[in-house]
From TrEMBL:
It comes from the Bacteria. PANTHER family: AMINOPEPTIDASE, AMINOPEPTIDASE YPDE-RELATED. Keywords: Hydrolase, Metal-binding. This is Uncharacterized protein.
Length: 392
């Protein structure tokens, strides 16, 4: 990972975010893109579209006839967290949780709180209630360390707090939110590189909202219908930080994601990225059906887009102390998420490689056919011999 990429990733993961409260991440991305001259705009639902300056520019790119597909990179700007509901007393805020969470050792857990006007304050959780399914927090009280802080309750959001928003320890990056700010980083870094040459790359990025509560931002974007009448192919590229599983392990490279809990992804585009990974990251990538959860690739498939997906292995998924480590309160209690720098660098490399011209989108199985035909040719003599078995 280059120093510039490292600095960008660290700065991005320091931004506060929660479902429907992505404004600080979005503003950070907009400032970065504006300074670099990369076109971008907000769709009607507040998703950040990268690679076009307006809906009209988006449509012009899709209307340009070409055999080169537009690569639509998708990552989400939110992470599980809470919204303020109402002030119960000075310094005591009732909150409602959105998305997944740890379910144990929650009372007294440190949290941060913010609104979109500036800084952050701290507090702890009390009176935590889980949802009926028992898989995540439903409501809680937050007792603030600074009771004088009192913005309008509904503007407040927050999540679990650790020693820092993000820090490095060896090859690992620990953070209050790696999912999916790692994916957002890859979209932004790929856009900066692609537009540096000042030619129009076949690139679009969708930085979406509220993925953690049901892929909401991406579904809302797809429902706009802007992609329905494209004159050229479009390939969706879902980028995620996904829970570690056997065969998808930290430090062994980015994952070519064959599917998620809901659906397999498209065979042809997946073959394209699998061949790229084999050539660019030999022995340093992984392939797996990542069925620990669903991702925005599912929404792209449901709306008829050819889809491939990449992921980096994620420790302590959704801040659950599944792997433990620093600042983990207890097993299965609140803990910082963590990723491996080399895995992130590998996913970043594959994103750039996917923009190269002349990839085998139109015939992704050509090399496979060539290999299989060569194997068949080795056995021509045996294949053409008379069958010596019994005749009927």
């Amino acid at each position: 990972m280059t120093p510039d990429d490292h600095d960008l990733l660290m700065a991005l993961m320091a931004q506060p975010t929660a479902p429907f409260r992505e404004a600080r991440v979005r503003a950070f991305a907009q400032d970065l893109l504006r300074a670099a001259g990369v076109p971008h705009f907000l769709d009607p639902l507040g998703n950040l579209v990268v690679g076009a300056a307006s809906p009209a520019g988006y449509q012009r790119l899709l209307a340009t006839r070409s055999r080169e597909p537009v690569r639509l990179f998708i990552a989400h700007m939110d992470h599980p967290g809470f919204h303020g509901v109402r002030w119960l007393a000075p310094g005591v805020l009732r909150v409602r949780w959105h998305g997944g969470s740890p379910t144990r050792h929650l009372t007294g857990a440190p949290v941060w709180l913010a609104d979109d006007t500036g800084g952050e304050v701290t507090g702890v959780l009390r009176r935590v209630r889980l949802g009926k399914h028992g898989l995540a927090i439903d409501t809680a009280e937050v007792h603030l360390d600074t009771p004088a802080w009192r913005p309008r309750a509904q503007t407040v959001y927050g999540a679990f707090r650790f020693r820092k928003p993000v820090w490095r320890s060896g090859a690992r990056l620990y953070a209050r939110a790696a999912d999916d700010l790692v994916g957002v980083f890859c979209v932004l870094a790929t856009a900066l590189e692609a537009f540096r040459a000042r030619r129009r790359p076949p690139f679009l990025g969708l930085l979406s909202r509220a993925e953690e509560v049901g892929l909401v931002g991406t579904v809302a974007h797809l429902q706009l219908g802007w992609l329905a009448n494209a004159a050229r192919p479009v390939v969706a590229v879902s980028l995620e930080a996904s829970r570690t599983l056997p065969g998808a392990e930290l430090g062994k490279g980015p994952i070519v994601r064959l599917g998620d809990r809901r659906t397999p992804f498209s065979a042809g585009p997946t073959q394209v990225v699998a061949e790229l990974a084999a050539k660019r990251l030999p022995g340093r990538h992984q392939r797996r059906l990542m069925d620990g959860g669903s991702c925005e690739g599912s929404a792209a498939v449901a709306w008829g887009l050819p889809t491939l997906a990449l992921a980096v292995p994620l420790g302590n998924y959704h801040n659950q102390g599944l792997q433990g480590g620093p600042d983990c309160r207890a097993p299965l209690g609140p803990a910082p998420e963590f990723v491996h720098r080399d895995d992130v660098a590998g996913m970043r490399l594959l994103c750039a490689a996917l923009l190269e011209p002349g990839l085998s989108w139109c015939d992704p199985w050509r090399e496979v056919r060539t290999r299989l035909a060569a194997i068949r040719a080795k056995y021509d003599a045996l294949l053409t011999q008379s069958d010596a078995g019994p005749k009927r």
